[in-house]
């Protein structure tokens, strides 16, 4: 938890005022000095206890005067070395909002995608592919830089109401809203612990929209291993076989010849046993026998879930 | 008095001291009931172009007469329950965050639904207006 707090804190130390703030660091950046300052500031961040979000810094977002603009834009951080999303930021106006229905995003497999079904989850499935900046705001369909693995509760109970509020405000007023979503990963975890969401309406200086919240990537009744995304009912112990599978599966060497499954759309390569390889659309699927280095030269990157 | 309130699916009214949502069609629709509306300073900007007269007073709920229509965004009306004979709810049919809610238990307070109207808003697909009397 301390490491987790330190990561959030890196964000929060920029949240003390609107002045003098720099862009948020990418989530995998840490340094000891920042962490120690931040830990002191984060003593009040509680563990998840049933409330899906908490407010941060008295709901004041950390956009600087230089950042705030009425010119619409959107920015998505590149994936880090573990293929995890970084922050996504936009100045949202009507000009960025979608004019067509959302298309399928089921071919995207964000890190930590270990889907599971539980009766206690509305709709059954634990995980959603969560847009960092919601589709209704910027119309991004299957942008893998904007999709993380999130619980049903994070998506529906946590993020969606805030997205609704921002979207309807923009539609009604024709104003712009600065909007930033930062997924927070602890250490090398593949599943985000939560997301920090900041928003500020521009033309009315925050009178309409102004918030800074942290939403937990949690699900009532389900215990989650954030290292992998695997889960079990809170009332049960995790299956031993699940752990063994994770720990004993060997990674293939860079120059070792092996069979891989390619997704020609996402440019990811997978082990044959990977669930992403099984679920892949046929038109995007291709078999490849060769080395990982050869694939990297062809522009492919390794799946963050099966880690070939 | 007659009270008008806008709420979301969770009976929310405000989040972080800001209204959850707004729609110019609601402002227009209020004209169905009255040509004079009481509001607090919190709501004043909403009614800059309202097609009726607006009276602004922080203490409107204390001062309202039986015939007055009060548009309430930032007050808990539960403590004025006995003075209210008509309640008009505009429902956004959306879920927004909220930290200030509509707390009046309509059934316990003896209100009964008198009419329902659905209409499209400027920024909302469907707004439901419910009128309760007792």
Task: Produce a short descriptive summary.
The complex is a heterodimer of chains A (308) and B (134). With 308 residues, chain A is of the alpha+beta class. Helix content of chain A is 22%, strand content 22%.
Structure, explained:
The complex is a heterodimer of chains A (308) and B (134). Chain A is globular and about 60 Å long. Chain A has 2 domains: 48-223, Extracellular Endonuclease, Chain A (3-Layer(aba) Sandwich), CATH 3.40.570.10; 258-302. In chain A, 22% of the residues lie in helices and 22% in strands. In chain A, helix 1 crosses helix 2. The relative contact order of chain A is 0.14. Chain A has helices at 2-12, 32-41, 135-138, 152-173, 240-248, 275-279, 292-297; strands at residues 53-55, 73-76, 88-92, 127-131, 147-151, 177-184, 194-201, 210-216, 222-224, 231-233, 258-263, 268-270, 285-290, 301-302. Chain B has one domain: Dihydrofolate Reductase, subunit A (3-Layer(aba) Sandwich). The termini of chain B are close together. In chain B, 34% of the residues are buried. At the A-B interface, helix 4 and strand 8 of A face loops of B.
CATH superfamily of chain B: Dihydrofolate Reductase, subunit A
Main beta sheet of chain B, described? 5 strands, mixed
Mean pLDDT of chain A: 83
Name the strands of the widest sheet of chain B in spatial order.
6-1-7-10-9
CATH structural fold name of chain B: Dihydrofolate Reductase, subunit A
Total DSSP helices of chain A: 7
Number of domains of chain A: 2
Beta fraction of chain A: 15-25%
CATH topology of the largest domain in chain A: Extracellular Endonuclease, Chain A
**Radius of gyration of chain B from CA coordinates:** 14 Å
Going by CATH, the homologous superfamily of the largest domain in chain A would be Extracellular Endonuclease, subunit A
Give the topology string of chain A: H per helix, E per strand.
Answer: HHEEEEHEHEEEEEHEEHEHE
The major β-sheet of chain A equals: 6 strands, antiparallel
The 3D shape of chain A can be described as globular
């Amino acid at each position: 938890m301390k490491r987790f707090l330190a990561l959030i804190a890196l964000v929060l130390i920029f949240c003390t005022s609107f002045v003098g703030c720099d862009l948020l660091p990418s989530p995998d950046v840490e340094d000891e000095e920042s962490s120690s300052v931040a830990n002191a500031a984060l003593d009040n961040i509680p563990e998840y206890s049933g409330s899906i979000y908490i407010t941060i810094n008295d709901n004041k977002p950390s956009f600087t005067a230089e950042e705030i603009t009425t010119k619409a834009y959107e920015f998505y951080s590149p994936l880090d070395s573990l293929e995890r999303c970084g922050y996504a930021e936009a100045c949202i106006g009507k000009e960025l909002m979608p004019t067509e229905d959302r298309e399928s995003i089921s071919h995207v497999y964000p890190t930590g995608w270990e889907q599971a079904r539980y009766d206690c989850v509305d709709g059954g499935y634990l995980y959603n592919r969560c847009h960092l900046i919601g589709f209704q705001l910027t119309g991004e369909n299957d942008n893998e830089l904007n999709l993380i693995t999130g619980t049903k509760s994070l998506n529906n109970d946590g993020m969606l109401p805030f997205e609704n509020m921002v979207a309807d405000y923009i539609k009604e007023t024709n104003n712009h809203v600065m909007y930033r979503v930062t997924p927070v990963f602890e250490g090398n975890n593949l599943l985000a612990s939560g997301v920090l969401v900041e928003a500020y309406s521009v033309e009315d200086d925050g009178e309409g929209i102004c918030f800074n919240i942290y939403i937990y990537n949690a699900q009532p009744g389900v215990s989650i291993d954030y290292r992998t995304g695997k889960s079990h009912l809170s009332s049960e112990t995790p299956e031993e076989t699940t752990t063994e599978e994770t720990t004993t599966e060997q990674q293939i060497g860079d120059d070792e010849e092996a069979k891989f499954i390619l997704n020609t759309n996402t440019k990811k390569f997978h082990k044959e046993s990977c669930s992403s390889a099984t679920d892949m659309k046929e038109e995007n699927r291709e078999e490849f026998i060769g080395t990982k280095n050869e694939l990297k030269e062809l522009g492919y990157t390794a799946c963050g879930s099966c880690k070939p | 008095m007659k009270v008008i309130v806008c709420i979301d699916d969770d009976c929310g009214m405000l989040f972080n001291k800001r209204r959850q949502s707004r729609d110019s069609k609601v402002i227009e629709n209020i004209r169905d009931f009255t040509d004079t509306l009481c509001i607090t300073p919190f709501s004043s900007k909403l009614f800059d172009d309202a097609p009726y007269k607006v009276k602004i007073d922080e203490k409107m709920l204390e001062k309202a007469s039986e015939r007055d229509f009060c548009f309430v965004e930032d007050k808990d009306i539960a403590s004025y329950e006995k003075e209210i004979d008509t309640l008009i709810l505009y429902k956004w049919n959306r879920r927004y965050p909220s930290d200030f809610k509509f707390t009046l238990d309509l059934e316990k307070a003896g209100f009964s639904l008198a009419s329902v109207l659905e209409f499209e808003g400027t920024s909302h697909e469907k707004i439901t207006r419910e009128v309760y009397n007792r």
